[in-house]
Amino acid sequence: MGQGSRASGRGFVRQFWALIGATFLGFLGIGTVLPQLGPHVRFDLGGSDQTVGLVIGVFSFVALGARFFAGPLADRRGRKIAFLVGLFSCALSGVAYLLPIGLAGPYLGRILQGVGEACLYTGAATWAIEYAGLDRGSQALGYVSSGIWGGISAGPMVGQWLGTFSHAAFFQVTAALVAFAVVTRIGEDYRPVPHETTPRSLIGSLTVPGVAIGFVNIHYPVIAGFLVLHLAQHGNSGPAAFSMYALTMLLSRFFLGSLPDRLPPAITYFGGIAGMAVGLAILAPGPRPAMALLGAGILGFGFSFPWSSILATVLKRVHPGSRGSAVGVLSAFYDLFVGTSSFAAGAVAGHWGYSATFVMAVVALGGAALFGRFVFVAPREEMAEALEVSAP
Fold first, then answer.
1. 3-state SS of 156-186?
2. Of 72, 110, 176, 195, which is most buried with the most CB atoms under 10 A?
3. Residue 391 has pLDDT above 80, yes or no
4. What is the pTM of this model?
């Protein structure tokens, strides 16, 4: 039977770690270019501040749409093909940055980057879970996330060391092609599994977990956009707090990613959003540096678990031939909520100040808890039915 229908997987073998390494390289290239992209558009190409925003923002809209292409591609042609398409598109993105075509280069690069990221993540996440086995799906997702965040976190340091935007873009091309070569050497025996699930019915069945995931991630544009500004007047601990947030999340997902596999995922989901609420509540009033670091660490720790708790649960329920599409749909909800909440956070900050954006994120976690309850109620009902059947 093909890999698409396996439940046990092969475990964390050498090929699995090669897959994680390729994911790291793909996102390392993205992280290397991104911090220098704004200055490149503004000063090297003479673009306006509005142009910088448009160039940066076009990625999210393209990635959102591309997820509905990446999922079916992974289901019909294989996880490996989706992964390779993503890496190749990332390489082409780096080439576009280097073309002497003015502002069209960054726009084209970000469009290709959006397609690449959508395919790369969908292929990597689905393939990793099936390689490790559904019973270790959350741990596999933790390793994938560690590769992603490790690459994005290390990328800016590599970009600074390289010195120029053109060198960073060339590095993105190189990293993507090296990862492409690695993935070609990883074996896959995937065969599409026939099923009758339609895209509309799949999206309908994933709306509730998708909205739950969306509410969880509303905090991200608050942290990315306003944490440093918010703490600038309270000891200027913003950069250190953001590093603490990212580092705690990276380490938690790597070393504790198996918790949703070993505990009921509802516990890790609700425990995670409770920790996030505590962290945001500590950060909201503008604490002193020590408390800011504590709040950011608790927030990063809590954020380590909701995504894997929901995704692993969903992938155990959907048809094996729809797992790639399920990853794409849930990721699209992430893009939608992060994109819209970025505008909302800006409006809230403009009217009520930076602290209010953190309150907004806490309120959103209430929505995550409400919708999350319906994600995890099905397993309890199924367990009760099973107990009734097995009762003497």
1. HHHHHHHCCHHHHHHHHHHHHHHHHHHHHCC
2. 176
3. no
4. 0.86
